[in-house]
Amino acid sequence: MSQPKKDSPLRSDAQRNRERILHVATVELTRRADAPLSAIAKKAGVGQGTFYRNFPHREALVLEVYRYEMHQVADAACELLETRPPERALREWMDRLARFAMTKAGLADAIRLVTSAPGGPARPGPTPIMEAAGTLLGTCEAAGAIRPGVTPDDFFLAIAGLWQIDPHEDWEPRAGRLLDFVMDGLRVGAPGR
After folding, report:
1. What is the pLDDT of residues 14-68, one digit of tens each?
2. Which helix (H) or strand (E) covers residue 133, if one does?
3. CA 62 → CA 121, 125, 137, 144, 193, distances in Å?
4. Closest by Cα among 144, 25, 12 to 87
5. Alpha-carbon distance 9 to 67, whole Å?
């Protein structure tokens, strides 16, 4: 019996196990940076062997949770553009980005623990999210829904206040107001207005 290639896709049951682990790990690591891996495996309903086959050490799990969440948000951009007008897709994506920001804030301690160790892995960059923002902004600009020339860097500077909101408070109303202000600012000078 031959071994599967490292890049081969996971079987559907293996993929479900992996996603369940990532979901539970996101919740548990957000609550407590040093959550025991055994508790995460138990809450995900998988055995230790399955858990460690997917994530051989804490660093691998924490960084994959971060990447997984980031890709979920990035992938949502195209999904929203397929089903909504560009301006609405951008605003709904901003809400998803806010939820990611609050999750990331909760994961910050766990990420710091694994990336600050000598010889530890580097913190992953936000490239997929920057690319998603660029896609949304470009589509909105082409539709005349926002002012021309807004770059992803401009956009992230404008929403930087998200990362100042305490995720342990009632953050959603504050984030919503901030994102509404940003959206209003993006509309000023739009050719379609």
Report:
1. 889 999 999 999 888 878 878 899 999 999 999 999 999 999 988 889 888 888 8
2. helix 127-142
3. 11, 14, 30, 40, 44
4. 144
5. 18
